[in-house]
Fold this sequence. Notes:
The chain has 598 residues and is mostly beta strands. It is 2% helix and 64% strand. It has 2 helices and 39 strands. The strands form 4 sheets. The protein has a 21-stranded antiparallel β-sheet that branches. Strands 1, 2, 3, 4, 7, 8, 9, 10, 11, 12, 13, 14, 15 and 16 form a 14-stranded antiparallel β-sheet that branches. The chain is extended and about 120 Å long.
Amino acid sequence: YxxxxxxxxxxxxxxxxxxxxxxxxxxxxxxMEDSLCNPVGIPEFKxxxxxxxxxxxxxxFTTKKGxxxxxxxxxxxxxxxxxxxxxxxxxxxxxxxxxxxxCDLDEHPHFSLKFTKAKVMSGNMIVTGPAWITVEGxxxxxxxxxxxxxxxxxxxxxxxIPRYGESANRGFFLEDGxxxxxxxxxxxxxxxxxxxSRGSWAIKPIVSYKKRYKxxxxxxxxxxxxxxxxxxxxxxxxxxxxxxxxxxxQDPKARPNSVFSASVNAGSSSYNKYNxxxxxxxxxxxxxxxxxxxxxxxxxxxxxxxxRHSQNTSTHQVTLSLPEVAFGINRIYPFKRxxxxxxxxxxxxxxxxxxxxxxxxxxxxxxxxxxxxxxNRFVNGVRHxxxxxxxxxxxxxxxxSNSFNYNERWYTKTVHESWVSDTTLKGGYVxxxxxxxxxxxxxxxxxxxxxxxxxxxxQFRKGYVRAIRHVIRPTxxxxxxxxxxxxxxxxxxxxxxDKEGNTQKYSIxxxxxxxxxxxGAPPSQKSGAIxxxxxxxxxxxxxxxxxxVTGTQKVMLIDNFSISTSYDLAKDSMRWSDISLSARTxxxxxxxxxYASI
Length: 598
């Protein structure tokens, strides 16, 4: 009596009154009434995932069958209200004179589907006899011969109903029909396809996967056999097309120091012309892909490796980068003291870094990508870059900055050009041979600049303008690049270009009329320039009632008015470059005005 509670194996029962007949293996549970005749201690029954409340329960704990009156139980996403319920076994329940609804009100749901009898198969489905719709307890003149409601929890597999129609060029069709496989909690498979009455067909499997706090993504491969039009007519076309898509995302919490991501969209140029999924697919003529792995090496550096692809379905041009690697070392100060005491020496500001770039690239047409000789048409290269720089004070007021930049390029292909004489009007032609073999190219440059800052201010005791401030930053610099076009270095060569014997210089690493070097070539001529620059800033302080602290406001008159030119020591004439002027200012705090001239 009172708050009675029984637990037996996986059964839990609570009620105001529970009686047990051990001879008949029966349990009865009842609600009671309080002093106001309101029911209290309504029986609550739970076994596994099955749970409900009822006015009265009779249950045989040996046969696991029971009879329940006035019950409300939740099944899947809906609720079943039953006048009499017979529990046949652990998974099957018969319901008499009841209703099915998704409204969560216990006694009077807003809407429901009433029935005379039903069978509930837990975790599978609910089947009813003749049923009719009710709203606010009022039956509507809408009936069904039977009802069938899915009741399966978690993942499930099943048929995907196709859509049907007619295509003017491919006939009647069934599209996007197939089967869905709920394989596990981490991935599933959607296998669909298309079929047309004139022979066209397509298969489109899609795999989706996800691991919580790790990664997620999806992969699809679409293959289509397209027969367009009628054989023998001008518009007839018979082709095989494919399209591959892959999207992979890594959770930021999975690996803080490394990130792997993928976005792949590639296929034959005509796939979206005949098999578009959306209007944008049909109108798009460019596709790109990128698979990237980025690794942070602590405070030492960073490594990035990737594979990239781009294609234009209009021009049929395809560019592949397989692979592309970038490695860099963070800036280091080799002469800096570990324990800094006193003023830093000038050489302690010297710093250096290192960067490596490597790429293997192919530029071709989509029809040639899978040809046997595709490997010979790749262009590859490696570039090493080491910049060294440092700055320090000179004569207390001047800042002197110096930098040295070293580049080294590695290539596996070079070109050789030669003049071939013949009896044509031109008298001959330039023959270009591609030579396989390792070749390194090295170059360097040096630059130095000296600058200072000059301040000038004029203050006024009276008037609206309180002060005018002028800042001048003069700089003078020098840059030098040696001549790497000398024939003895081998980077540049001369070739005859006409029958008169005229020659021109060409780079052995490719260029005009041949493959382009991925990282360029050393410069072919010497450069040594002295650079001059003068930058001005002019501003003033005026009275302002808005500023209650200083009572003044700063107004920018001229922001970065610059004058620059250079003098090239390597040229034999026309050594002075153009004088460039530029300036900018802001009017009324809203309009920015830029000025430039040469």
